[in-house]
Amino acid sequence: MPFINTRTSCEITKEKETAIKTQLGEAIKLIGKSESWLMLNFEDNCRLYFKGGNSENMAMVEIALFGKATSSQYDALTAKVTEIISSELSISPSCIYVKYEEVDHWDYSGFNF
Q1: Is 102:73 a contact under the CB 8 Å cutoff?
Q2: Does residue 113 surpass a pLDDT of 80?
Q3: Which domains does the chain have, with CATH numbers?
Q4: Torsion, CA 107, CA 35, CA 57, CA 72, rounded to 10
Q5: For strand 107-108 and strand 111-112, is the pairing parallel, antiparallel, or unpaired?
Q6: 39 forms bridges with which residues in the sheet?
Q7: Which of 16, 59, 81, 82 lies deepest, with the highest CB count within 10 Å?
Q8: For the segment 33-43, what is each residue's pLDDT rounded down to a tens digit?
């Protein structure tokens, strides 16, 4: 039950959003999750600041998941998410943060897992 929230300082066209969505649906398998439970949110044109400024395009990707993953799974997913965002939105990997949150309690359809 992962949720990926992607904020960028640049515009995400509908075409790019669809491409990213599809690729993230595949990438989530790297931590043993499936696209059938994946929820995504995209927020573009955010006023993000990094290293004291905002002259470069940048992204903050937050990934919350029910349960846990291993360090090597996180490493693989971070590399893939960075590659996807960098290639689709022309954002330098050095301007992309990826944050993980492991959630013990997750509700769906009125019931807690």
Answers
A1: no
A2: no
A3: 3-112 (3.30.429.10)
A4: 90
A5: antiparallel
A6: 3
A7: 59
A8: 999 999 999 99
The model carries a pTM of: 0.93
Backbone angles phi, psi at 18, to 5 degrees: -65, -40
* Per-residue pLDDT tens over the stretch 1-13: 899 999 999 999 9
Burial class (CB in 10 A: 0-12, 13-18, 19+), 15: exposed
pLDDT for 43: 98
| Of 15, 35, 4, residue with least CA distance to 89 | 15
Q: Quote the tokens at residue 70.
A: 């291993």
Structure-block tokens of residue 90 = 């022309």
Tokens of 44: 């573009």
Q: How far apart are CA 92 and CA 83, in angstroms?
A: 9
